[in-house]
TrEMBL record:
<feature type="domain" description="Peptidoglycan binding-like">
    <location>
        <begin position="263"/>
        <end position="319"/>
    </location>
</feature>
<dbReference type="Pfam" id="PF01183">
    <property type="entry name" value="Glyco_hydro_25"/>
</dbReference>
<comment type="similarity">
    <text>Belongs to the glycosyl hydrolase 25 family.</text>
</comment>
<dbReference type="GO" id="GO:0009253">
    <property type="term" value="P:peptidoglycan catabolic process"/>
</dbReference>
<protein>
    <submittedName>
        <fullName>Glycosyl hydrolase</fullName>
    </submittedName>
</protein>
<dbReference type="InterPro" id="IPR002053">
    <property type="entry name" value="Glyco_hydro_25"/>
</dbReference>
<dbReference type="InterPro" id="IPR018077">
    <property type="entry name" value="Glyco_hydro_fam25_subgr"/>
</dbReference>
<dbReference type="InterPro" id="IPR036366">
    <property type="entry name" value="PGBDSf"/>
</dbReference>
<dbReference type="InterPro" id="IPR017853">
    <property type="entry name" value="GH"/>
</dbReference>
<dbReference type="InterPro" id="IPR002477">
    <property type="entry name" value="Peptidoglycan-bd-like"/>
</dbReference>
<dbReference type="GO" id="GO:0003796">
    <property type="term" value="F:lysozyme activity"/>
</dbReference>
<dbReference type="GO" id="GO:0016998">
    <property type="term" value="P:cell wall macromolecule catabolic process"/>
</dbReference>
<dbReference type="GO" id="GO:0016052">
    <property type="term" value="P:carbohydrate catabolic process"/>
</dbReference>
<dbReference type="Pfam" id="PF01471">
    <property type="entry name" value="PG_binding_1"/>
</dbReference>
<keyword id="KW-0378">Hydrolase</keyword>
<dbReference type="InterPro" id="IPR036365">
    <property type="entry name" value="PGBD-like_sf"/>
</dbReference>
<keyword id="KW-0326">Glycosidase</keyword>
Length: 322
């Protein structure tokens, strides 16, 4: 499981238990907030609307979670959740919070899948799954591995292995953070870019609906210039070194796979790190080895791309997506 680092996005998650929040003060130290919306088939959190209004006014990136009930129908729970959050500012993939059950591992996973599949039908989004390490081990199985993970594991820098996921998009590392603007200790999290709607799920499959607009949807700056320069030097691509990742740059990109070495591999590794994918102990070494290949495959899986570990056209496009 990947460790937390220094490049992650800081956030909190809140519910009715967090009251008296100075949202603008919290915004000074946190970028993301995930708000409890619903539980079961007819419960809406009593602070849901107040938290939403305050966080929206303060300029947070906003997401919502549903606390999964062991007693009620998963399809109806999904409908309750979507009805509560549709039409609101939604920057982050919806979250299924599953952390309690007396059912068997197979039953719990079946129920989660029913909820997740219904949410996909209703919203078009693949949800994030939130859970604890111990609960994942005891109550969930590998059929959930295709969904991004938000893991809770306190007092550690690296969440424990759970047998299902190798990486996370969210890491809740404490429930006792002292956050300026929140009167009492609260949950605190590190997130990767993988939580954002535009970076995965159905949006990731349609990165460039209008080819002429690719540069607007992609990062720009020094790293793109470095890529353009390397493509010119190594492959005589004659690109303008303008720092914009547009169609000309995409068309010039080569297939890169295990065994490759050099600056282009290093650029790929940098984008993987930027998006929160671990490269193991060797990190940014310019060598396309086993760890880099595994990171590429995880990234491809999260984006709904062909999982082959090769950086081709669609993977290049996804890597340089904002």
């Amino acid at each position: 499981m990947q460790s937390r680092g220094n490049k992650y996005i800081k956030g909190i998650d809140i519910s009715k238990w967090e009251t008296g929040i100075d949202y603008k003060k919290v915004r000074e130290s946190k970028d993301v907030v995930i708000i409890k919306a619903t539980e079961g088939v007819n419960f809406i959190d009593s602070m849901f609307e107040r938290h939403y209004i305050g966080c929206k006014e303060a300029g947070f990136k906003i997401g919502f979670y549903h606390f999964f009930s062991d007693k009620t129908d998963p399809t109806e729970q999904a409908r309750n959740f979507w009805n509560a959050i549709k039409g609101k500012q939604l920057d982050i993939l919806p979250v299924l919070d599953i952390e309690t059950s007396i059912r068997s591992k197979r039953e719990v996973t079946n129920r989660c899948l029913e909820f997740l599949q219904q949410m996909k039908i209703l919203s078009g989004y693949n949800c994030i799954v939130y859970t604890y390490t111990s609960f994942a081990i005891e109550k969930l199985d590998t059929r959930l591995s295709k969904y991004p993970l938000w893991i809770a594991h306190y007092g550690v820098r690296t969440p424990g292995n759970n047998g299902i996921w190798n990486s996370w998009v969210g890491f809740q590392y404490t429930d006792k953070e002292r956050v300026p603007g929140v009167p009492n200790p609260c949950d605190a999290d590190y997130f990767t870019e993988g939580i954002f709607i535009e970076d995965r799920g159905i949006r990731c499959l349609n990165l460039d609906a209008n080819n002429n607009e690719l540069w607007k949807k992609s990062i720009n700056g020094p790293l793109v210039k470095e890529l353009q320069r390397e493509l010119n030097i190594q492959f005589n691509k004659n690109l303008n070194i303008d720092g914009y990742f547009g169609e000309n740059t995409l068309n010039a990109c080569i297939l890169v796979r295990r065994g490759a070495k050099g600056n282009i591999t290093k650029i790929i590794q940098q984008r993987l790190l930027n998006k929160g994918y671990s490269l193991g102990v060797y990190g940014l070494d310019g060598v396309f080895g086993t760890k880099t290949e595994m990171a590429v495959k995880r990234f491809q899986k999260d984006c709904g791309l062909k999982i082959d570990g090769i950086v081709g056209r669609e993977t290049w496009k996804a890597l340089f997506r904002k």
